[in-house]
Write a structure and sequence with these properties.
Layout (H helix, E strand, L loop, with lengths): L2 H15 L1 H7 L1 H6 L4 H9 L18 H14 L1 H13 L8 H7 L7 E14 L2 E11 L7 E8 L11 E7 L4 E3 L13 E11 L3 E3 L10 H4 L2 H28 L13 H31 L4 H32 L10 H13 L7 H10 L10
Parallel strand pairs: 1-3
Antiparallel strand pairs: 1-2, 2-6, 3-4, 4-7, 5-6
Helix pairs in contact: 1-5, 5-6, 5-9, 6-9, 9-10, 9-11, 9-12, 10-11, 11-12, 11-13
Length: 384
């Protein structure tokens, strides 16, 4: 077992050890629409927001597949917890895009969390030493507890207004942005994914990098991997972890018998639903894991091999999300009226899976990209 694999095993154990704490607070997730401070702090102390932090800066620098396993375990514990571990742990890879003297001090704080929004909805005006940044970004998962906020910006340099503005990622102190409390949603309520806004914030040039064509500052695979592919990995695993939790909840409920009756699991229909869920989950998980491995292997070679792997990853992400929704909805339906109540675990699993599946990285548009590629058509204008 290499260093990264050993680190993943340790982190998975830490995730499972947090089970009692998460369960003790889980009833507040929907009501407060964010994780309570004790849970967020415990995730940070366990190192779960540092998953892709470079080894050179004291991080575990997990492999992409090791990352997938840790995030799955967190999402199985709770969908919102998994989403924030995927996002926060995934954004620790920013330390592989910025200079060590910039990112290193951020991650000396065990509570360090980079809340990121990937829509290029900000504007960065060049000034001496950096940029003046303004904009409002949606879906700032974890922004309430974040230490750093990242927003993508178009560079407004006053040049040819008809030319597309280059995009840069701008990293700002959390205190420099305003949070808009608008996260009123059906699923993943505990993620606190509110909008955040910057108004003429100065961002030093060294706190920015190009996007999506990033020149990494660290040698690891995840930093050399195409940025859009690396980003997709950080969220696409979450629905599969949620589906795994749904399967476990269904099995637990099916084992309970009412007085004088057989347990539901003795019925053929219940057995079929459980078996079908297992098969669907295993197939989607294998597709995603293989696609992640293929992108990592093809990263340095480039060319058609990498393009093919990136297209497959996009489709695998969409398939993982669709499969998770299918599993959770089917198991909730098979559980009857009990799963209608908010306190039932299958209700939350179904809501969280549907919310995760709405993310752009898991959009059904991926199948159009895959279809065009399979048909030998151009992919110009489609982001892989």
């Amino acid at each position: 077992m290499d260093r990264a694999d050993a680190a993943a095993e340790t982190l998975i154990t830490r995730v499972r050890d947090l089970g009692p704490l998460v369960r003790a607070h889980s009833t507040t997730f929907d009501r407060e629409r964010r994780l309570p401070a004790p849970v967020f702090a415990a995730l940070g102390e366990a190192g779960l927001f540092r998953l892709f932090l470079p080894a050179a800066l004291g991080g575990p620098e997990l492999s992409p597949l090791g990352f997938m396993r840790v995030v799955e375990a967190a999402a199985e514990l709770d969908g919102s917890v998994g989403w924030l571990v995927g996002n926060g742990g995934g954004m620790s890879r920013a330390a592989g895009y910025l200079a060590a003297e910039v990112a290193g001090p951020w991650f000396q704080d065990p509570d360090a969390f980079v809340a990121a929004a990937t829509g290029a909805l900000g504007r960065a005006a060049p000034v001496a030493g950096g940029y003046r940044v303004s904009g409002r970004w949606p879906f700032g998962s974890g922004i309430h507890h974040a230490t750093v906020a990242m927003g993508l910006c178009g560079v407004a340099d006053g040049a040819d207004a008809t030319a597309p503005a280059p995009t840069i990622a701008c990293y700002m102190p959390r205190a420099a942005v305003t949070v808009h409390d608008n996260w009123f949603v059906s699923g993943l309520r505990g993620t606190g994914s509110c909008d955040f806004e910057a108004a003429d914030v100065f961002v030093p040039a060294e706190n920015t990098h190009a996007f999506p064509d990033i020149a990494p500052t660290q040698p690891g695979t995840i930093y050399r991997m195409p940025a859009v592919s690396a980003f997709a990995i950080t969220v696409a695993t979450v629905p599969l972890g949620i589906a795994r939790a749904a399967i476990a909840a269904f099995a637990e409920a099916a084992a309970r018998a009412r007085p004088g009756t057989a347990a539901p699991r003795e019925r053929e229909a219940v057995q079929i639903e459980a078996g079908r869920a297992e098969a669907r989950h295993a197939a989607a998980r294998l597709y995603l894991a293989q696609s992640i491995a293929d992108v990592a292997e093809a990263t340095d070679g480039g060319g058609e091999t990498l393009a093919r792997a990136r297209v497959a990853l996009r489709m695998a992400c969409a398939t993982a999300a669709e499969t998770a929704v299918t599993i959770t909805d089917a198991l909730a339906a098979a559980s009857g009226s009990a799963a209608l109540f908010e306190g039932h675990p299958l209700d939350r699993c179904a809501r969280d899976a549907r919310a995760a599946a709405r993310h752009v990285a898991m959009s059904p548009a991926a199948y159009q990209i895959g279809g065009r590629f399979a048909l030998g058509m151009e992919l110009a204008g489609f982001r892989l």
